[in-house]
TrEMBL record:
This is SCO family protein. Transmembrane segments: none annotated. Keywords: Copper, Disulfide bond, Metal-binding. The keyword Metal-binding applies. It holds the Pfam family SCO1-SenC. It comes from Acidovorax carolinensis. InterPro entries: SCO1/SenC, Thioredoxin-like_sf, Thioredoxin_domain. Cu cation binds at C60, C64, H149. PANTHER family: ELECTRON TRANSPORT PROTIN SCO1/SENC FAMILY MEMBER (PTHR12151), LINALOOL DEHYDRATASE_ISOMERASE DOMAIN-CONTAINING PROTEIN (PTHR12151:SF25).
């Protein structure tokens, strides 16, 4: 634990976030899905890292790629501490977002980021636990549909506790400040 974390704990000073402080929330407890490499995942897999979870889909025209690019910017801003950040993308479109598609999509942002998927029922259960809204919106053809979905990132501290919700549009600087604060807490 760093000196600032020890002093903060002793003084009772609470970490201030630029996103919404949801420390102690009783939802968004886990992500029991499979990553794009075929490995079953859980938040426990990433202990020691700050984890940022975002729900979306690869054919999203703006919100999803913007959010993932901002997360990649945060990792770069962190410099050597960037290895202590884990980006997680959870698809809400398992029909089109195959493991191959998800792997290629993550490569656009950062090779260490993971994309998670599962059956429609598994994804619905995880989304419900995270209070994520998503709905298929028919297009002109059966494959040209879009997905309406909640847009924001959930940030977990290095102990695996849910701490911050960053609203879409907050920007890389705000998310980066919150990630940096959680890394400092961890020491």
């Amino acid at each position: 634990m760093s000196a600032s974390a020890i002093l903060g704990a002793c003084s009772g000073k609470k970490t201030e976030f630029r996103g919404v402080d949801i420390t102690g929330a009783d939802y968004a407890r886990d992500i029991p899905l499979t990553d794009h490499n075929g490995q079953k995942r859980s938040l426990q897999d990433f202990r020691g890292k700050v984890v940022v979870v975002f729900f979306g889909y690869t054919q999203c025209p703006d919100v999803c790629p913007t959010s993932m690019q901002e997360l990649a910017e945060v990792k770069q801003m962190l410099g050597k501490d960037g290895d202590r950040l884990q980006g997680i993308f959870v698809t809400v479109d398992p029909e089109r977002d195959t493991p191959e598609v998800l792997k290629a999509y993550m490569a656009n942002f950062d090779p260490s980021f993971l994309a998670l998927s599962g059956t429609p029922e598994q994804i619905a259960a995880v989304a419900k636990d995270f209070k994520i809204y998503f709905k298929k919106v028919d297009g002109k053809t059966p494959t040209s549909y879009t997905m309406d979905h909640s847009a924001g990132s959930y940030v977990y501290d290095a102990s695996g506790r849910l701490r911050v919700y960053n609203r879409y549009g907050s920007g890389a600087q705000a998310l980066g400040a919150d990630v940096r604060a959680l890394l400092q807490e961890a020491g």
